[in-house]
Amino acid sequence: FHQVRQASHGRYAIVEAWQCKPSRACLAAFLTAVEPGVYLHCLYSGEDLIPTSYFPEIDYPLGSPHGPAHEVPHIGSGVWERTFGQGVVATWDDVANTGDVVFPGRIPPPPPAAEIFKCEPGLAHTTRWKGQSFAFFNLRHRNGVETALLCCSFCSRVNGCTKWSWHVDQYTCHCHGPQATGPRPRQGVVAGEFVSMPHQQR
């Protein structure tokens, strides 16, 4: 997101990715910051370029942006949103380092069935999905959280939290408000939504 913004202000930037099919979060970072003259470019040039680099969103209508991205719901939130002429909404969460793009009429596949369990005896009941994540509207986050169970327990005590995401590669726990989007597929993440929250504190 910040590298694209630098390029949009006349600075040269190359962002290296592991594949030529960008994730929805990658598209969100690009679309919330892109300006004329800035491109999302695949450097791969093999004979199988088209089948290995094509992704459905490349053909979706976008339209001109209504203006630069702005922070929502207020300045300083770290959540950037940008809308486009065809009704597309791109959002980037600078706190959770993730984003999403909503294309009108394109309904994402439903998440797999979730299991329901207790974070700890006497604490909140929650659903749990493996390989799914929520995005945006982070109320609190904590690093060094070693398990999804501990993440759930931590977020159950955060006022207003209804959803949580635990990132296994970074041992990072994110506590989300009810406006958070998802769950959406994301490798290396366990996510849940509270069914009951008996004693949220702060």
Describe the overall structure.
The chain has 202 residues and is α+β, with helices and mostly antiparallel strands. The protein is built from 4 helices and 10 strands. The mean pLDDT is 80.
Features:
single chain, alpha+beta, four-stranded antiparallel β-sheet, 15% helix
Helix content: 10-25%
Spans of at least 5 consecutive residues with low confidence: none
Q: Supply the number of helical segments.
A: 4
- Integer-rounded radius of gyration: 18 Å
Query: What quaternary form is this?
Result: single chain
Mean pLDDT: 80
**Overall geometry:** globular
- Strand tally, please? 10
What is the terminal separation in angstroms?
Answer: 31 Å
Structural class by helix and strand composition: alpha+beta
Describe the main β-sheet briefly.
6 strands, antiparallel
Estimate the strand proportion: 25-35%
Widest beta sheet: strand line-up: 5-6-10-8-9-7
One letter per element, helices H and strands E, the order comes to HHHEEEEEEEHEEE
Record the SSE blueprint.
Blueprint: H1 2-8, H2 24-33, H3 49-53, E1 70-71, E2 79-83, E3 89-93, E4 98-102, E5 115-118, E6 125-135, E7 138-143, H4 148-155, E8 163-167, E9 172-176, E10 181-196
Antiparallel strand pairs: 1-2, 2-3, 3-4, 5-6, 6-10, 7-9, 8-9, 8-10
